[in-house]
Amino acid sequence: MRDLSNDTRLLSLNAATVRQRWDLKQIIDGCARHGIGGIAPWRDQIAECGLDEAAKRIRHAGLRVSGVCRGGMFPAIDSEGRKKNIEDNIRAIDEAVALAAECLVLVVGGLPDGSRDLSDAHCQIEDGIANVLDHARANAMPLAIEPLHPMYAADRACVNTLKHALDICDRLGEGIGVAIDVYHVWWDPDLEVQIARAGRGGRILAFHVCDWLVPTTDMLLDRGMMGDGIIDIRKIRNWVETAGFDGQCEVEIFSAENWWKRNPDEVLRTCIERHQSVV
Amino acid sequence: MRDLSNDTRLLSLNAATVRQRWDLKQIIDGCARHGIGGIAPWRDQIAECGLDEAAKRIRHAGLRVSGVCRGGMFPAIDSEGRKKNIEDNIRAIDEAVALAAECLVLVVGGLPDGSRDLSDAHCQIEDGIANVLDHARANAMPLAIEPLHPMYAADRACVNTLKHALDICDRLGEGIGVAIDVYHVWWDPDLEVQIARAGRGGRILAFHVCDWLVPTTDMLLDRGMMGDGIIDIRKIRNWVETAGFDGQCEVEIFSAENWWKRNPDEVLRTCIERHQSVV
Fold it and tell me: Is pTM, for the whole model, over 0.90?
């Protein structure tokens, strides 16, 4: 297991973590100033900054791009909607390529409006990924399915376990893997086994950290800083690294009432401190 | 699959559904008045009414007791705490026996205060159940492990899939099965397979219904009435009945801002209508 106790270069900052008070340019500058080694920007932030400008600034700051957030959201109520979603994923792949990202994270989507057909949504997701995979392969951009916590199954992503994500990877072949976020998967009794399975195919493309707070007061925007909750993050990092993952640990915290309100420089200092002591 | 379109006798009312405005005596009377065939009382409601009085009234009303809520909550920070929890489960078994309940539902408990050791909590749960199982067997009271939604893993129950619950059942042997609540398990891609597995051992002891609302505004108290959300309840009931379950469909709705505020007679009428049209 890697020693992170003095590290900042294996830390990547998901740009959502300070998005309320800094724009992407400020986040890039902040990462550089604090010695943080990577960044994971969101597409709306990239669009606001301009793709070329964002790519230039990230390169100039010497940051790795641990992932681009996000592709996915494949299911739709009709074929026109599904086609639009696929086109949007093609653009997302191109943006990830322009940023030299290590992967494009896929939040695959939930049930289309008005649907109760979970199996159909699963099929639409797999079809959608299959439809963009050739473009991803041709551009050497790995796609990372991120299984989300089951509480997001209806409206964000109905791939909710690492096993399900890997089953899809097995069926689709090369060019696709997984993003493992401790927040989404920590509860899974099958986690250690599935992480080892993911490692055998070299399919762990990203590792995201934050913490599960008790109590959690909001289903989306109450994630905790590493160490403030109940996830044994180091145990999971050990499993992930034992399985061969050697990328960055990406901090991704949605926290409307706490971290999003704080001074972003303080947030970055805390991320570094917890990366070194807790992750 | 059973035809419920004119049925009220295969409907059971979990007494939490109207607990804010009626006490247990009123709920028993309400069920009888509406022709509802069963009830599932909570232990605090039983205590308030008095165990003998509750048993007498339920019997007099001709209600089946589809389950008693609840035993479980086994993990604790020290052996003294675990011992107390086991003693409390013994009392819960005795109460369920006194009420001639069809099972005692187990909400197994989450991480003890301050713990991040999920594996240890799993062990404590299995040990705890093993410690009360002889008493349950001797009194012919089936124990029903209820896998809860993974969003409750930290603080309520860290058995979160039907597979995990059945694995525990397999290890512990006779006298134990599962309570399947659509709210907790609807998202699971392995659900159909695991329901069939549960059926092979005759281990489906209870079937609970409500609905998952989009959006869900509270992690605990925003469950929906059947038909108001996105769960394909009838599909799951078909799986459960195909697996051999022939018990009642128990409606269990925690809804602080909607159903708990309404006239309980209206709530019961709606439960019956949705039981016949949606479940």
Answer: yes
